Amino acid sequence: xxxxxxxxxxxxxxxxxxxxxxxxxxxxxxxxxxxxxxxxxxxxxxxxxxxxxxxxxxxxxxxxxxxxxxxxxxxxxxxxxxxxxxxxxxxxxxxxxxxxxxxxxxxxxxxxxxxxxxxxxxxxxxxxxxxxxxxxxxxxxxxxxxxxxxxxxxxxx
Length: 157
Hints:
The protein contains 6 helices and 6 strands. By secondary structure, the protein is of the alpha/beta class.
């Protein structure tokens, strides 16, 4: 099973704890040898999901939205990004150079195209900018990809 991930970044510690638990429950539903997690490995749910998939014995594939994507992520996240991309069974690239909202959406479109299902750590609110979680969910649904929304009850971002 090929599971993609999208989700809000910058979640507080309590929401992070709850989201990690929700992700672990979802990952545990799949046999380790059959599970491939697909992620852009941004800080937040993308990385938490990739780590959980690997801990479960699955494999990860990484989608890189742009050549300078890593540099656009917070410096404190670079170590996790490097560690996960080194563990990727496959790396997919959009061919774009600059890490813009359009590149992020293009990366999400590649991810959706590779997945059998999408997990969305989403509060149900509109995207705060083009290529946000709501846009990815809409794109996935429009393309017939099953989407499973994961959001802790009463959580806010």
